[in-house]
Amino acid sequence: MQPLKIYDYLVLARQRILDKVRVLSPEQYAQPMGIGHGSLDRTLTHILASEWYYVQRLLRRDVPPYEQWAIRWEEPPPFAGLESTWVRQARETRAAIEAVRDWDEPIEYRVTADDGRRIIVTASATDIVTQLALHEVHHRAQVMNMLTRLGAGVGDIDYNLLMYQRRDAD
Predict the structure, then answer these.
(1) What is the CATH number of the domain that holds 10?
(2) d(Cα 27, Cα 44) in Å, to the nearest integer?
(3) Where are the alpha helices (DSSP H) in the chain?
(4) How many structural domains compose the chain?
(5) What does the pLDDT read at residue 76?
(6) Among the four 7, 32, 89, 144, which has the fewest Cβ within 10 Å?
(7) Span 142-149, average pLDDT
(8) Residue 103: C-alpha distances to residues 5, 106, 119, 130, 155 (Å)
């Protein structure tokens, strides 16, 4: 696995998604869709907030309770705010991935489980970056479905299309 290359792919694919969302009306951006977190604005905000969370864990920073997070899916920003925040987050994410020296070293952190119990989670940097990538892909599929319903389909954004080198054959 090449974590930086995988993250670069996420950013390229994400840009194609955001390019489609950018031209939607604010009403379409917030339209209830019954998929993902219920709408484009909420689902995209969830992906962004989760990326922030995973980077905090990768950097071994304490994470405040969810109610204190600056970005929460229940309170999505207007699209321009989401996009500008994500540009800054992407720089921080890439820097955090570049800074990893031991991909297998255990990283422990405490969280409150859904049932209210405090638990200790142990993961490696590999685990955290893998979760960050797969989480985005999971929710990106939901976003792509919503965009298709709105008549703004994204088309093919497979890794091989965006990342493989291509040239004309003789």
Answers:
(1) 1.20.120.450
(2) 15
(3) 3-22, 26-30, 40-58, 79-99, 125-149, 159-163
(4) 1
(5) 97
(6) 32
(7) 98
(8) 15, 9, 23, 11, 34
Which residues, 6 or more positions from 103, have their beta carbon under 8 angstroms from its beta carbon? Answer: 3, 124, 125, 126
Please determine, for residue 84, whether its predicted confidence score (pLDDT) is greater than 90.
yes
pLDDT at 159: 94
Residues 6+ apart with CB under 8 A from 158: none
Domain span including residue 21: 3-161
Is residue 167 domain-resident?
Answer: no
On the question of pLDDT at 1 being above 80, the answer is no
d(CA 124, CA 110): 14
Collapsed DSSP state (helix, strand, coil) of residue 153 = coil
**One-letter identity of residue 15:** Q
Q: Is residue 120 part of a domain?
A: yes
Which residue shows structure tokens 């500008």?
Answer: 84
Alpha carbon distance 26, 34 (integer Å): 17
Sign of CA dihedral 79, 96, 64, 120: positive
What residue type is 166 in one-letter code? R
Q: What percent of the chain has pLDDT over 70?
A: 100
Mean pLDDT of 153-167: 94
Q: Helix or strand or coil: residue 167?
A: coil
- Is 169 within the bounds of a domain? no
